[in-house]
C-alpha cells in the first residue's frame, strides 16, 4: 500500500498547492476596489469567524443588518415605493373621480412634479392610506409584485429590482458564506420589500424588518382567517425605530450594520454598542456620474431623500465607522455593468 | 481488490440491515402513546416532506408555531411569568414602602391569595409596569434569568424550566429534523421567554414571538445606544394578535400550529387557511393526576388560566383539528419522569 500512495504523492501535492492558490485568488468582493472599506469587511469577517481570535463570534450571534434605500439599491430621485405609490394613484383614479379635484391626489394625477416634490409626510401618508390599505395582505402583495414585474426606472430603463448595488449583494453573500444571517432593516414598507427580497438579495421574508402597518384578523366568506391592512402605523422603522425593531425581531445587537443616511445612525450606534468586533458602514453617494451625488456631507448637494449630513459623517469618523465612497470604493455599481 | 472486498461483504450486508432496522425502530416520539394524535404528527411530516407527495412543502415555507403556557409547559395554578411578577413585588418592596398600603401591591406583599386570585387585568398590568419596566432590556433579562435559576414550582419542587412537556419537546425536535423552523408564539412576554427558549426548547430568541412592550432607544453615560423598557404595550399576542404577529414576523401562514386555549383559536385557523396539508393541535388538560384537569371543554373544571371552552372543542372537531388528550396521548409528561 505504501508504494501505491507514494506514486500519487507528487500529484497530490500539486493539487494541494493549486487549491490553496485558488482559494487565495478567489476574491469574495470583486466589485470592490482595494482600499480601507473593502479591507474593513474582510478583516471583520476574519476576526469574527476565526475561533482563535479574541473577537470570535458564535454562529448563533452572527447577524448583519442592511438598510435598503440608498444602501443596497437606488433611492434617487425618489424612493421606489413612493414611485409605486404615485403610480397606484393613476391606476386607481378611475374608481375615485373625486381625486381629480382633491389634493394631494390631484397633483399626482396631473403629473405636477413641482407640487409632488413639496408633498409633506402627511400628504404621502394620505396617498399611502388610499392606495395600499383596506385590502388583504395577499392582494397587496399581488399588486406590488405585478408592478415590480413591469415598471422601469426612467434613467436606466431597467426594472427597479435590477438597480441593486452589486458590491452590497457581494457583501451579503460573503457574510452568509461565513455564517451570518443577513437582514434588511428598512424605513420602507416591510410588506413591499418582502415581495422581492428573496429573489433580489437572497433574503427571505422573515429576515426583512421594515416600517409596518397593523394587520387586522378577520374572516372571508368561506370562514377562513384572513388579514386585512388597516391604515394604522405599527412600526416606524427609521432613526430610533431601527434599533428598537431589531431588538423586537431578533432580541440582540447585530454585529454588522450598513446604512447611508441619518435614519441609519441609531442602528449603527446600536450595532457598535454590542461590544467586541463590529462593522459599521455608511454609503456616501459621491458618484453623480455612475449613480447620484448627494449629501450634504463633504459638500455634496443636499437632499431630502437619503440625507447624509456632515454631522453624521463626523460621527462616523469619530466612532471609527467606515464611510464607503461609491466613486472610489466600488469598481462596479450594478450587476448589469455600470 | 475484488477478493478483499468480497471478504467484507457479509459484514457489510449485516451492517446495512441493522441500520435499516434501527431506523425503522427509532420512534421520533417515544413519549407519545400510539393513537390518532401521534399518527397525525407522523402523517403531516411525511406528506409535507416527501417530494413526490402533492402536499409537499418547500423547506423555505416550513414553519411551526407553538403556544407556550399550557401547550409546551405548565400554566397552572398560575402562569409562570405571573409568579415571577408577584415575587418581584416582594423583592422590590423595600424600595417602595408605599406599596404596603397600596393595592394591588398590598395584597401581594401580604400573600393574600384570595385577593390575588381576583386581580383584574388592570391590576396585573399595574404590577407588571411597576416591576418590569423602566430598566434596560439587559437589566430585565438578568433579573428574569436569575429568578429562573432559583425559583421552584411548589408542587413538583422543580425549576419552572423543567416543567416542559416532553412530548412537545419531541415534536419540536422531530419537526426541526425535518426542516421545519419551530417558533414559540406566546401570549406571555416575548422578552421573558427569550431568556430560556434556546436552553429549554432549542428555539433561539429570534424565533420567539410574544406579547411585547415598546422599547425606547436612548444613550448611556458612555454615549452608547441602549434600549429602555417603557410601560407601553406594543403587541398583545393573544387571540387575533397571534396571526397578526406571525404575519408581522414571518410574513406567511405557518404549516403547523399548537395551542391549548381560546387564545390560540385564531392562530390555528390561520394555520389551516394557508391551504395544503397543515397540522392543528390543541392540548386538553384532562389529566388531573399527572398534571392538572381543566377546560371547561368535556366537562372539565372551568378555569381563567388557559380556558379551553366546549365551543373551541367543537370548532376543533368540525375543522378537523386534533385534540391531544394528555391522559391518553402522552405516555410521559415531563423529562424527569412523571
CATH superfamily of the largest domain in chain A: HAD superfamily/HAD-like
Unreliable spans of chain A are: none
What's the number of domains of chain A?
Answer: 2
What sort of overall outline of chain A do the alpha carbons produce when their principal axes are compared?
Answer: globular
CATH class bucket of the largest domain in chain A: Alpha Beta
CATH topology (level 3) name of the largest domain in chain A:
Rossmann fold
Describe the structure.
Two copies of one chain form a homodimer. By secondary structure, chain A is α/β, with parallel strands linked by helices. The first copy, chain A, has two domains: 29-73 and 157-329, 3-Layer(aba) Sandwich (Rossmann fold); 80-153, no CATH class. Chain A has 14 helices and twelve strands. Chain A has helices spanning 2-25, 36-49, 80-92, 105-110, 113-117, 121-132, 137-150, 166-177, 190-194, 197-201, 241-250, 265-273, 310-319, 326-329; strands at residues 63-66, 152-153, 158-159, 181-189, 208-213, 216-219, 225-228, 233-235, 256-259, 279-286, 293-294, 322-325. In chain A, strands 1, 4, 5, 8, 9, 10, 11 and 12 form an eight-stranded mixed β-sheet that branches. In chain A, strands 2-3 form a two-stranded antiparallel ribbon. In chain A, helix 3 (80-92) packs across helix 6 and helix 11 (241-250) crosses helix 12. The model of chain A has no long low-confidence stretch (mean pLDDT 94). Chains A and B meet through helix 9, strand 7, helix 11 and helix 12 of A and helix 9, strand 7, helix 11 and helix 12 of B.
